[in-house]
């Protein structure tokens, strides 16, 4: 049984400069590492990698909210997004 009320969400975004296209994805896991939900999508018009990563974060938070998940830990490799979320 999982006693932690927080779920961990790993997010990632991708960006191709030549086509200005990208994608987003996320995976929600419980304290045992079991997947509770996931999502991915295509981004037809992306300015940069940070925008793609931000869209992944937004989609993950929206999905968690729809499931009634209120306490989350978001893990991202985008340091500027992490800093923005912590302020």
Précis, in short:
With 87 residues, the protein is of the alpha+beta class. The chain has helices at 49-66, 79-86, and strands spanning 7-16, 21-29, 35-43, 72-75. Strands 3-2-1-4 form a 4-stranded mixed beta sheet, covered by helices on one side.
User: Residue-averaged pLDDT, rounded?
Assistant: 91
N-to-C order of helices and strands: EEEHEH
Global outline: globular
What are the segments in which pLDDT stays under 50 over at least 5 consecutive residues? Answer: none
Order of neighbouring strands in the sheet with most strands: 3-2-1-4
Number of helices: 2
Please compute the radius of gyration using only Cα atoms: 13 Å
> What would you call the quaternary organization?
single chain
Largest sheet: 4 strands, mixed
What is the SS-derived class? alpha+beta
First and last CA, distance: 33 Å
Task: Estimate the strand proportion.
Answer: 35-45%
Q: What is the percent of helical residues? A: 25-40%
Walk me through this protein's architecture.
With 87 residues, the protein is an alpha+beta fold. Helix content is 30%, strand content 37%. It has two helices and four strands, in the order βββαβα. Strands 3-2-1-4 form a four-stranded mixed β-sheet, with helices on one face. Strand 1 and strand 2 form a beta hairpin.
Write out key terms for the chains shown.
87 residues; four-stranded mixed sheet; alpha+beta
Write the layout of secondary structure elements.
Layout: E1 7-16, E2 21-29, E3 35-43, H1 49-66, E4 72-75, H2 79-86
Parallel strand pairs: 1-4
Antiparallel strand pairs: 1-2, 2-3
